[in-house]
Specification:
InterPro entries: ClpP/crotonase-like_dom_sf (IPR029045), Tail-specific_protease (IPR005151). Pfam families: Peptidase_S41 (PF03572). Helix content is 37%, strand content 19%. It is built from 15 helices and 19 strands.
Length: 514
């Protein structure tokens, strides 16, 4: 008992020192010579590990950007001041997965506990960012009595338009695609703001509503003790909720299935993320129900799905075809040892790292053995790059796939494959992820030695098993439907409505021809 107590005290002390050390480092000014070394280190690692670095930008152009950046470093900078200089150069590679990460402020256990007893500062309202302006879409808790439709002009005196333009430089979509950016800035704006300013207890918003400009203060409120207790309690999850990958925090399902007509003629599957969690069982049960119902049409909705597991989309595709298929080409790498550099220990606690350490040599050996060389290129044997048989309950009717600019990565891969094979009609908006593939799979996260900024570099060039368009664009729908993103009060679902109307129209023609 004594030993356990001593160990606990030591862990708390170490944790406190780590927090203090990290936060002091955030204020440190790093000498210019060290910052320039980090710039060179970043480019060196990109050239070493990124399997298609000059896909969307020429080597000469990228060389020039890194060289030019070094000439602008004329004075010492803090880590996150440096982040805002280096991140746009990394983003200029125009490969959507490649984003520099800043050094986040850390918080003690006591501070983290205190945060849980207070309401969030920004998350009680929903926002829509249009161009470089922010509007309140919904104010669920009537925070500051701010009306829906109100424009936020400033946050603590900083112009919102300046912040949006600043944050938009920190990321990119794939290639020349333009639909991804508007979705991603809506997802990431307040994350970037918090990285810059920390977890604030209050802010002053300068708002514009009904031609009246006014300042409104908003602040975190202390939650009632009952609410805190209820949030701590782990809710019971039913087997059906588990199958649909229910998220207790958001109280929403990752996967949903339903019939959109009383006669079960139209089946509808919505997947928010290809998380792989319980996916095989979900698709097995779902397609069995669809087959039993003898549905004629299937609508697969992967709008706002940023991607995820290759294993899941390979499983899903096996229910969408009636012939043997290979979903992706063998992933390319820069060398036979690239796979050995993926993050094995990253994200693990000290204890879990100790437990998993004995398996590390087998991990290295396995990655090496799964790598091969052919025609001066290096490849990795990924499961989804092998031939797969269709499932017994595979759907044989007409398929519609709904996409938008936030359909990214794995969502684009399965969409590109379905479109190329003429197996589905793609409806909506050009996907944010490229039609011809992406650089992802697994990462080697490098830590810059002086600024401690982190950069996850995708090790695999993953491309759908299709003939490439070479247009540097996303998956272009067979039928483009404007999602009316600019209308923050819109309640209709234009893309889904168009799809249902198209099904009804084609059914009516079939009926008349009989």
């Amino acid at each position: 008992m004594k030993k356990n107590f001593t160990f606990l005290i030591l862990m708390i002390l170490v944790s406190c020192q780590t927090v203090r050390k990290n936060n002091l480092f955030l204020e440190k000014k790093i000498p210019t010579a060290e910052l320039k070394k980090d710039i060179d280190y970043t480019y060196e690692k990109l050239q070493r590990f990124h399997p298609n670095l000059y896909w969307y930008i020429s080597k000469d152009e990228l060389d020039h950007k890194f060289d030019s950046l070094k000439t602008t470093i004329s004075e010492p900078l803090s880590p996150n001041q440096f982040f805002f200089k280096l991140a746009p150069v990394v983003a200029s590679v125009n490969e959507g997965h490649l984003r520099l990460r800043s050094v986040g402020r850390k918080y003690s256990k006591a501070e983290q506990k205190d945060f849980k007893t207070k309401t969030p500062l920004f998350a009680l309202m929903d926002y829509r960012i249009l161009e470089d302006r922010i509007f309140v879409k919904e104010n669920r808790e009537n925070v500051g009595e701010i009306k829906a439709g109100t424009e936020i002009l400033k946050i603590d005196g900083e112009n919102v338009s300046d912040l949006v333009r600043k944050y938009k430089k920190l990321y990119s979509s794939d290639g020349e695609n333009k639909t991804f950016q508007k979705y991603f800035i809506n997802l990431s704006f307040f994350n970037y703001y918090t990285l810059e300013n920390g977890y604030l207890d209050s802010v002053k918003l300068t708002t514009l509503c009904d031609n009246v400009v006014q300042d409104v203060g908003i602040k975190r409120q202390r939650k009632a003790a009952k609410q805190v207790t209820e949030e701590k309690a782990l809710p019971k999850i039913t087997p059906d909720q588990k199958l649909q990958h229910y998220d207790t925090a958001t109280k929403s399902y990752n996967r949903t299935f339903k019939f959109l007509r009383s006669d079960s003629s139209i089946a509808y599957i919505k997947v928010k993320s290809f998380s792989a969690t319980y996916s095989k069982k979900f698709y097995e049960k779902t397609f069995k129900r669809i087959r039993k119902a003898k549905s004629d049409h299937l609508i697969l909705d992967i709008r706002d799905n940023l991607g995820g597991s290759l294993s899941e989309i390979n499983t899903l595709y096996s229910y969408l075809t009636d012939k043997k298929f290979t979903l992706i080409k063998a992933p390319e790498m820069t060398s036979k040892t690239s796979g050995m550099h993926q993050n094995y220990f990253r994200g693990q606690s000290l204890l879990s790292s100790i437990v998993s350490a004995p398996a590390y040599p087998f991990f290295l050996a396995g990655n090496y053995l799964l790598s091969s060389r052919k025609d001066r290129r290096y490849y990795f044997r990924e499961f989804a790059s092998r031939p797969t048989r269709p499932k017994e309950d595979a759907f044989k009717g007409k398929i519609y796939v709904l996409v938008n600019g936030a359909s990214f990565s794995a969502s684009s891969i399965i969409s590109a494959k379905l479109k190329y094979e003429n197996r589905a009609v793609i409806v909506g908006e050009e996907t944010g992820g490229a039609n011809d593939g992406t650089v992802a799979g697994v990462n080697n996260t490098i830590i810059l030695p002086n600024s401690h900024l982190s950069l996850p570099i995708g090790l695999f060039l993953i491309r759908p098993n299709i003939e490439f368009e070479n247009k540097n664009r996303g998956v272009v729908p067979n039928f483009s439907v404007d999602p009316n993103f600019e209308d923050i009060f819109a309640t209709e679902d234009k893309i889904l409505d168009w799809t249902l109307e198209d099904i009804d129209f084609r059914n009516s023609i079939t009926t008349k021809s009989k």
